[in-house]
């Protein structure tokens, strides 16, 4: 579909959400490098079209599971950056009251299961969520975001197979950024694509350009509708590239310079901005205004998080499941 098939508000919404993720991640990166923010981070720069494209095809009451790289998924599903920033600073104003940090943030009221840092750990969880939806006869869908490395975990095979045999309303989304940490995908897969594995479970598998936000949206929309209507799961492989390190101390020396340069030329935000400008959906001034507004919002979130209260010792005894 062309841009003409969509409203201006929808298109600008996609752009703004992707840019919000990028600006959030870039600000967080420097807060960590400056030693202002505690903990560690795994960032999402370059993969924004995956999260935004998929989540734009979901309803508010649909559920997603995420990974050790969750910030983009959280923002795309509707979590606010103010609570996320508070969480990264470990404050009581955080979405998990400072108890989750970067790798475990989430908000069930917005359809985000607190992120699971175990590689592949979200697959059986999303499958279980889908089973609950089916047993309750609720027309809801679970989306499981994972990286390429997760597709070689046992939990992937068990979870996807269960989703397939029971026709559960789940969409399994592999964000293939070509590296599992520092290991190239080509060294750990014999198949040309990860989506080929779908045939072993008897479900559809598709590999698409994960940096094309509209293509991701359209493909996800079809998969989500199929799941919601009782057709069972789909395995989507989104080809993308992280233009940042695996974690905050990774200089990316394993990524060839030419490959990185190509990836930066193909990153989704600049690419989509060019599409919007070429189609005269918007002008440069409007895009600049969006960027400036998001900058102000991010800075306000940082200031609020730094000023927020620290948790108290007794807070560790709350929010527990006790037999």
What structural keywords apply?
globular, five-stranded parallel beta sheet, alpha/beta, two-stranded antiparallel ribbon, about 10% strand, single chain, about 325 residues
Task: Describe the structure concisely.
By secondary structure, the chain is α/β, with parallel strands linked by helices.
Corresponding CATH architecture = 3-Layer(aba) Sandwich
Category from helices, strands and their pairing? alpha/beta
Shape: globular
Bin the helical content.
40-55%
Number of helices: 10
Characterise the protein shown here.
The chain has 323 residues and is of the alpha/beta class. It has a single domain (3-310), classed as Thiamin diphosphate (ThDP)-binding fold, Pyr/PP domains (Rossmann fold, 3-Layer(aba) Sandwich), CATH 3.40.50. The chain has helices at residues 8-33, 48-55, 71-76, 81-88, 122-135, 154-165, 213-228, 257-265, 268-278, 284-307; strands at residues 63-65, 142-147, 170-176, 179-180, 183-184, 205-209, 234-239. Strands 1-2-3-7-6 form a five-stranded parallel beta sheet, sandwiched between helices. A two-stranded antiparallel ribbon has the order 4-5. The longest helix is centred in the N-terminal third of the chain and has 26 residues, at 8-33. It is globular, with a radius of gyration of 19 Å. The chain starts with 7 loop residues before the first helix and ends in a 16-residue tail after the last helix.
Topology, element by element:
Blueprint: H1 8-33, H2 48-55, E1 63-65, H3 71-76, H4 81-88, H5 122-135, E2 142-147, H6 154-165, E3 170-176, E4 179-180, E5 183-184, E6 205-209, H7 213-228, E7 234-239, H8 257-265, H9 268-278, H10 284-307
Parallel strand pairs: 1-2, 2-3, 3-7, 6-7
Antiparallel strand pairs: 4-5
Helix pairs in contact: 1-2, 1-9, 1-10, 2-7, 4-10, 5-6
């Amino acid at each position: 579909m062309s841009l003409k098939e969509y409203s201006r508000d929808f298109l600008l919404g996609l752009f703004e959400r992707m840019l919000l993720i990028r600006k959030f991640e870039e600000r967080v990166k420097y807060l960590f490098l400056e030693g202002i923010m505690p903990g560690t981070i795994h960032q999402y720069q370059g993969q924004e079209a995956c999260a935004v494209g998929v989540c734009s095809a979901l309803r508010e009451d649909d559920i997603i599971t995420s990974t050790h790289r969750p910030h983009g998924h959280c923002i795309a599903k509707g979590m606010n950056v103010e609570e996320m920033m508070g969480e990264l600073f470990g404050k009581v104003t955080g979405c998990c009251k400072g108890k989750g940090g970067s790798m475990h943030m989430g908000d069930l009221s917005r359809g985000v299961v607190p992120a699971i840092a175990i590689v592949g750990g979200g697959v059986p969880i999303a499958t279980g969520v889908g089973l609950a939806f089916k047993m309750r006869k609720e027309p809801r869908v679970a989306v499981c975001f994972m990286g390429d490395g997760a597709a070689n975990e046992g939990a992937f095979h068990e979870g996807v197979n269960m989703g397939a045999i029971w026709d559960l309303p789940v969409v399994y989304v592999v964000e293939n950024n070509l590296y599992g940490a520092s290991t190239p995908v080509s060294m750990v897969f014999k198949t040309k694509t990860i989506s080929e594995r779908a045939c072993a479970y008897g479900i559809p598998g598709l590999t698409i350009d994960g940096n094309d936000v509209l293509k991701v949206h359209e493909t996800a929309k079809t998969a989500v509708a199929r799941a919601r209507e009782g057709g069972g799961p789909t395995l989507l492989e989104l080809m993308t590239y992280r233009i940042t390190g695996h974690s905050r101390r990774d200089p990316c020396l394993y990524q060839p310079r030419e490959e990185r340069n190509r990836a930066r030329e193909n990153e989704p935000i600049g690419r989509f901005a060019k599409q919007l400008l070429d189609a005269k959906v918007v002008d440069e001034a409007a895009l600049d205004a969006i960027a400036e507004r998001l900058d102000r919002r991010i800075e306000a979130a940082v200031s609020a998080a730094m000023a927020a209260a620290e948790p108290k010792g007794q807070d560790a005894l709350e929010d527990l499941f006790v037999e």
